[in-house]
């Protein structure tokens, strides 16, 4: 390893739906974080690893900052802010479509000022606005904090994503690699399966249903097919808050559940590099989002 090799931890902060997970997946080049056009897609703290010739960057994708309405929501926001205290660099993601600093962004800014970490401001979704609007937004935020860099990006158009990595690397200290160079996440296969199933449900279901979904893998077992091909036999349960939600998730003649399973299996086969036999069940677990025994599993260890 080179003597000037750098490494460090980077936390990505932002409101729900600003594109944090899309940015991480684009930078890593692998699917490690759930993406859906729904608030609060990321629930847990996920680590994603970018290995470069001169550095190893460990991204920590945190839940989007929002106004909590349950014990789960409280823990999600608490986790996001707790992580920011111990990282080497913060990446604060905002939307280019913003006209002002809203309550959510103001809350994050105040936390950044409090922890006093090197912070890169990333303005996402610049493909949706003109350059004059971006310039006004840059001036607005420049007056709020001494960011080490301000980077306008677009994950859709793949604009300036490499610049984020370059700027992070500049602001890291010399240090060893914390993970093997062939690793891109610290999530287990079980966690990847659960997150992928939940992501597909988030994308396909009505607005009120996804927030009450919890996915748990009941069984994961490797075996071989009759053609001697490796296969993962996976059984998982989708828990929801109400009986009415259960019917929506299953769909007419099981059509929605089948669609969720098909899309999840396709993604998982690419990620895990093996065939997947996926079986899904749906059960009601009333008010689990306020159940202390379940919520403790979401807290930082």
CATH superfamily of the largest domain: P-loop containing nucleotide triphosphate hydrolases
Give me the secondary-structure category: alpha/beta
Query: What percentage of amino acids are in beta strands?
Result: 15-25%
> How large, in whole angstroms, is the Cα Rg?
20 Å
Low-confidence stretches: 32-44
Q: Predict the CATH topology of the largest domain.
A: Rossmann fold
User: Which sequence of SSEs, written as H and E, runs from N to C?
Assistant: EHEEHEHEHEHEHEEHHEH
Determine the mean pLDDT: 81
CATH architecture of the largest domain: 3-Layer(aba) Sandwich
Largest sheet: 7 strands, mixed
How far from one another are the termini?
A: 31 Å
Work out the helix count: 9
Give the count of structural domains.
2
Shape: globular
Beta strands, count: 10
Overall CATH class of the largest domain: Alpha Beta
Q: Percent of residues in helical segments?
A: 25-40%
Give a structural overview.
The chain is an alpha/beta fold and 301 residues long. It has 2 domains: 6-174, P-loop containing nucleotide triphosphate hydrolases (Rossmann fold); 189-298, GMP Synthetase, Chain A, domain 3. Helices cover 34% and strands 25% of the residues. Helix 4 links the parallel strand 5 and strand 6. Helix 6 packs across helix 8.
Keywords:
301 residues, alpha/beta, Rossmann fold, GMP Synthetase, Chain A, domain 3, seven-stranded mixed beta sheet, three-stranded mixed beta sheet, 9 helices, 10 strands, globular
């Amino acid at each position: 390893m080179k003597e000037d090799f750098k490494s460090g931890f980077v936390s990505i902060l932002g409101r729900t739906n600003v594109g944090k997970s899309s940015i991480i997946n684009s930078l890593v080049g692998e699917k490690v974080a759930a993406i859906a056009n729904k608030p609060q897609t990321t629930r847990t703290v996920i680590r994603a690893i970018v290995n470069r010739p001169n550095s190893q960057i460990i991204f920590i994708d945190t839940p989007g900052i929002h106004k909590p309405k349950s014990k789960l929501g409280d823990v999600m926001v608490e986790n996001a802010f707790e992580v920011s205290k111990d990282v080497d660099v913060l990446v604060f993601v905002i939307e280019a479509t913003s006209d002002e600093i809203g309550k959510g962004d103001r809350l994050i800014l105040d936390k950044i000022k409090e922890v006093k970490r090197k912070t890169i401001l990333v303005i996402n979704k610049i493909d949706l606005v003109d350059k004059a609007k971006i310039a006004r937004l840059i001036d607005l935020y420049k007056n709020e904090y001494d960011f080490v860099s301000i980077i306008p990006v677009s994950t859709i158009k793949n604009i300036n994503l490499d610049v984020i990595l370059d700027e992070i690397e500049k602001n890291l200290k010399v240090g060893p690699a914390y993970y093997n160079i062939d690793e891109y996440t610290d999530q287990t296969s079980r966690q990847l399966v659960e997150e992928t199933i939940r992501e597909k449900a988030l994308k396909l279901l009505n607005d009120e249903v996804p927030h009450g979904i919890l996915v748990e893998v009941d069984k994961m077992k490797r075996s071989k097919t009759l053609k001697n091909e490796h296969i993962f036999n996976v059984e998982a349960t989708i828990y929801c808050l109400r009986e009415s939600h259960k019917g929506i998730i299953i769909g007419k003649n099981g059509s929605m559940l089948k669609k969720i399973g098909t899309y999840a299996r396709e993604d998982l086969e690419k990620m895990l590099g093996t065939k997947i036999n996926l079986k899904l069940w749906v059960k009601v677990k009333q008010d689990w989002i306020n159940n202390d025994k379940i919520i403790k599993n979401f807290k930082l260890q």
